[in-house]
Amino acid sequence: MKILTYSVRNVLKISEVDFDLTGRNLVLIGGNNASGKSSSLKALLMAVCGKSGTDWPDVVLKEGTDSASINVELGDANDKLEYQISVTWKRGRNGNVVESFKLLDRDGGKVPEPRKLLKDLYKLKGFDPLYFQSAKP
Predict the structure, then answer these.
(1) What are the CA-CA distances from residue 61 to residues 13, 42, 75, 89, 99 (Å)?
(2) Which tens digit of pLDDT belongs to each residue from 9-64?
(3) CA distances from 64 to 9, 35, 57, 78, 116 (A)
(4) 97 in Cβ contact with 91 (< 8 Å)
(5) HSE-up of 42 (CA within 13 Å, CB side)?
(6) Are 25 and 110 in contact, with CB atoms under 8 Å apart?
(7) What angle (nearest 5°) sits at the alpha carbon of residue 99, between those of residues 101 and 102?
(8) How far apart are CA 92 and CA 124, in angstroms?
(9) What is the 3-state secondary structure (H, E, C) of 81-137?
(10) Which end of the chain, N or C, is more open, meaning fewer C-beta atoms within 10 Å of its C-beta?
């Protein structure tokens, strides 16, 4: 399973990020300090692993915003769409933030036990893209 497309809006330090990884096997993410590199990787983990699979931040919404989203398309080795992940957050009038999570199959149908499926896919690869944050020099 590989990431085909990935978009983030108003999550952590990110205003807007779009990646089209179709046909790519390696992607370089670079930029100045505090430009959102780590936030984009953490947002990907949030979508794929959920709260139990990552160091979920207390505040997900970018400061000054009332809604946020992460969308990920996963495909097979031939870049054929297999799953679509959608996570959204909206701040209500009372200030509480409500999260919505959807995992759809290639035909747009809901997947039974979506978090279990994603957890199994993540374990299959067995790597942590944010390992460098906690690594010693």
Answers:
(1) 8, 13, 28, 7, 11
(2) 999 989 999 999 998 877 888 888 888 888 888 898 888 877 766 677 788 999 99
(3) 13, 17, 16, 40, 33
(4) yes
(5) 17
(6) no
(7) 10
(8) 37
(9) EEEEEEEEEEECCCCCEEEEEEEEECCCCECCCHHHHHHHHHHHHCCCCCHHHHCCC
(10) C
